[in-house]
Design brief:
Blueprint: H1 7-17, H2 24-44, H3 46-52, H4 69-82, E1 87-92, E2 99-100, E3 111-119, E4 130-138, E5 161-167, E6 171-176, E7 181-187, E8 192-197, E9 208-210, H5 221-231, E10 240-241, H6 247-257, E11 260-263, H7 276-289, E12 293-295, E13 315-318, H8 320-334
Parallel strand pairs: 1-3, 9-10, 9-11
Antiparallel strand pairs: 1-2, 3-4, 4-5, 5-6, 6-7, 7-8, 11-13, 12-13
Helix pairs in contact: 1-2, 2-4, 5-8
Bound molecules: 2,5-anhydro-1,6-di-O-phosphono-D-mannitol (AHM) and magnesium ion (MG).
């Protein structure tokens, strides 16, 4: 019988591979694992909560107020990190400012966490896959002091770990600590994430393109021409168009099958839609670790210097040859703009 490796065992094993590891990162990953299980449970009964047991935001029969699922996930991840002394602060898509943990309560740790607790908001109430995206950095401010903004404004290249959880036909956690990418599928019958996708590699080429083509008229000439290229009949094209509208789910499929996801700048949103710090950077780290590529159309996402907590930037992410191809079109038709 094949030996099952649980996420817990995997984390312990990886820690043993680093002789001077203190176990702090392992603790953090374990806390994220637990919070993900709780969020997964709530996501699975989302339909029940909204349609049968009363709508979000209203008081249920026990006098408890139902929370919107994205608020619930945010609260769950914040609470789970508050219990971890390794973390000195957090940033979340759901909160305008950074969350600074109290040093007097022992939060002197060396890490900060950035998170999109429940991405794919338009899909939450319609039973379509959604996800959590997270990113961990070593702080730049001195340990023992309160976390500051600079701890969060680091280039993606500095990430210590990054991952996502996709709540799909099954729940999966995929993450990297800079030494390859591994995927774990949640077996709800035993309450455990099991290693199902060791050492994930993104195919160098693919035949799927994922973009919200409804915005086509607002895209640059380079992006428009690339979309037409995807649709031409030649050398394995036309590609299949697949767009779920949940970044994690679209990325996850392309990671496994090969493909490209892009959310470009457009006349409507000059910097695209997606957030650099807790959407693009973590997925870019995973993509590169799996042999894929992620850019803003010209430059590697991981080399961009953040200047704002919730800043947006265009994203082209996926199979290396496909991202390089879209670059050719952008360079040719959009010049230096
Ligand atoms: P959100 O953080 O509000 O959920 O927005 C991010 C999501 C991504 O998951 C998805 O790929 C994209 O927005 C879809 O946007 P659009 O509906 O404009 O295509
Ligand atoms: Mg989001």
């Amino acid at each position: 019988m094949k030996k099952v490796v649980t996420l817990g065992q995997f984390i312990v094993k990886k820690q043993e591979d680093f002789p001077y590891a203190t176990g702090e990162l392992s603790n953090l990953l374990s806390a994220l694992r637990l919070a993900s299980k709780i969020v997964s449970r709530e996501v699975n009964k989302a339909g029940l909560v909204d349609d049968i047991r009363g709508a979000s935001g209203v008081t249920n029969i026990q006098g408890e107020t139902q929370m919107k699922l994205d608020d619930y996930a945010n609260m769950e991840f914040i609470n789970s990190m508050m219990a971890q002394e390794e973390i000195c602060g957090m940033a979340s898509e759901e909160d305008d400012d950074i969350i600074v943990f109290d040093t007097e309560e022992g939060h002197n740790g060396k890490y900060v966490l950035l998170i999109d607790p429940l991405d794919g908001s338009s899909n939450i109430n319609v039973n379509v896959s959604i996800g959590t995206i997270f990113s961990i950095y070593r702080r730049v401010s001195p340990v023992g002091t309160k976390a500051v903004l600079e701890d969060f404004f680091q280039k993606g290249r500095e990430q210590v770990a990054a991952g996502y959880v996709v709540y799909g036909s099954s729940t999966m956690m995929v993450f990297t600590t800079g030494n390859g990418v591994n995927g774990f599928t949640y077996d709800s019958s035993i309450g455990t994430f099991c290693l199902s996708h060791p050492n994930m590699q993104m195919p160098v080429d693919g035949s799927i393109y994922s973009v919200n083509e409804g915005n086509y008229r607002y895209f640059s000439d380079g992006v428009k021409k690339y979309i037409k290229y995807c649709q031409e009949e030649d050398e394995g094209r036309p590609y299949a168009a697949r767009y779920i509208g949940s970044l994690v789910a679209d990325f996850h499929r392309n990671l496994i099958k090969g493909g490209i996801y892009f959310y470009p700048a457009s006349g409507m949103s000059p910097k695209g839609k997606l957030r650099l710090l807790y959407e693009n950077n973590p997925l870019a780290f995973i993509a590169e670790q799996a042999g894929g590529m992620a850019t803003d159309g010209r430059q590697a996402i991981l080399d961009l210097q953040p200047t704002e907590l919730h800043e947006r930037c265009p994203l082209f992410i996926g199979s290396k040859n496909m991202v390089e191809k879209v670059h050719e079109f952008i360079a040719l038709y959009d010049g230096d703009a």
